[in-house]
Amino acid sequence: MQSPGWADLHGWRLERSGGIPLVRQIYGQVRAAVLSGALPAGTKLPSSRAMATRLGVARASVVSAYEQLLAEGYAEGRHGSGTFVAADLAELSVRRHTTRPIKARATPAPARAFPEFERAAAQIDARPFGTGRTLVDARTMDTWRNLTSRAARAFGANDLGYSDPAGLIELRQSLADYLRAARGVRCEPEQIVVTAGTQQALDIAIRVLLAPGDEVWVEDPGYPLTYAQLLLANARPRPIPVDAQGLVIAAGRRAAPKARAAFVTPSHQFPTGVALSMARRLELLAWARVSGAFIIEDDYTSEFRYSGPPLASLQGLEADGRVIYVGTLNKALFPGLRIGYAVVPPALLPAFVSARYLMDRQPPTLHQAVVAAFMQQGHFASHIRRMRQMYRGQRDALAETLARRAANRLKVDVPDQGMHLVAYLEDGTSDIAVESAAQQAGIVVRAISRFYRVASPRPGLMLGFSGFPRQLIVPAAARLAAVVAK
Ligand SMILES: Cc1ncc(COP(=O)(O)O)c(C=O)c1O
């Protein structure tokens, strides 16, 4: 059974500029057509000669692509009659062609829970004012390339195997030195567990600390990914309000005095940017000590402080082992790095390391070696100094442009720290409506009312400034001002 027009009808997209070899591209596109059902089982593929003419490529490229498909079982040769899509893929094609929606009941309940979580937290849009983005200048980029190739060259037999699930000791040593000096964290390198970022550190903390049904304080408004992780673990997050001094501890004590843990962002509350006052810090620690709860301190953006003395970590204020301090290099350097860490109280360390081991064994050795060298050689400190200056300029450019063009509609809280600011809509305009109007105008803003659970939302726009140079920020801020003026 031949499908005469298939190769002609197919929207071939062959890239000839030399990136991906043509053989790979032909193989990949035929395979995708088989998997999608566009090329059903039993279909005869054009002869290699006809296909080569059709695509304007050497016949040898088609022959190699077909050989790969034959070797992997997507195609089969029939003696004397050519190459066919393998007949035993019929089941696959039938399934792919089905248009019947999968019954909700057929999907396991845990799987159904996932898509329902807050997607506004996805931070993959590269346009201003997407949040969580960073800039990396040419100097860091060069250093990074050099250190990466040096680390790869130095890789020996030992580095190729499994290693300590808590991370390379060189990296943990550098992190401990940095955290003691810059954040007042009390720690030994052995207490540091390298993770794939905050996200994994929070996940491990939840697994180690909480049983299903346990109550947990979360900030309201607060970080949606923590909330989602807690729900997935069948814990019971209890939203506790935030005011100008940060989390209202008295409200937490009233609402859930027996909570097992509190997840907080004390140095730069997400999303408001408020710093937890010293009085509240002491109150929170006192509650944890008396009630036996743990505090998970998410210190995600402390490297970028623009004025005033930094408030040292909450962890450094206590000696009872009730705080898990979580930090990330995905903000200090770049989110694609996927390296963060937790400073874990000694009593919890064996459980924490075991949980990490069971999740994905260990962090990748090569990346850790590069980061360790980057820190040991002083590049990290100078990168932070340069970026801090750059981000401060970007923050000011954003705040000034909004003040000049939209002061009557937006009240901007200029933060002392962090990578985003919040522009409040003072006249009752819905931030969700502005979010979608801005989207239409090509500008990314996050409506902060999405981050409220119980407390009544103060409408505002969360605007990331760290990921965009001034020359992009100023015109985008002007466009945003025009959007809110409508
Ligand atoms: C509150 C908070 N914590 C942590 C992070 C960083 O997460 P990760 O280290 O997993 O990239 C973010 C990123 O947006 C954040 O907003």
Task: Provide keyphrases for this structure.
486 residues, alpha/beta, Arc Repressor Mutant, subunit A, Aspartate Aminotransferase, domain 1, 3 domains, 8-stranded mixed sheet, 4-stranded antiparallel sheet, 14 strands, binds pyridoxal-5'-phosphate
Describe the 3D structure.
The chain is α/β, with parallel strands linked by helices. The chain has 3 domains: 6-97, Orthogonal Bundle (Arc Repressor Mutant, subunit A); 156-377, Aspartate Aminotransferase, domain 2 (3-Layer(aba) Sandwich), CATH 3.40.640; 382-485, Alpha-Beta Complex (Aspartate Aminotransferase, domain 1), CATH 3.90.1150. It has helices at residues 6-9, 22-36, 48-55, 59-71, 90-97, 109-113, 138-154, 157-160, 169-183, 198-209, 224-232, 249-255, 278-291, 329-332, 349-360, 365-376, 379-406, 431-440, 470-485, and strands at residues 75-78, 82-85, 192-195, 215-220, 236-243, 246-247, 261-264, 294-298, 323-328, 340-343, 410-413, 420-425, 446-447, 460-464. The strands form 3 sheets. The chain has an 8-stranded mixed β-sheet with strand order 3-10-9-8-7-4-5-6, with helices on both faces. Helix 2 (22-36) packs across helix 4 (59-71), helix 9 (169-183) crosses helix 16 (365-376) and helix 10 (198-209) crosses helix 15 (349-360). Bound molecules: pyridoxal-5'-phosphate. Pyridoxal-5'-phosphate (PLP) is lined by residues 132, 197-199, 223, 265, 270, 298, 300, 328, 330-331, 335, 340.
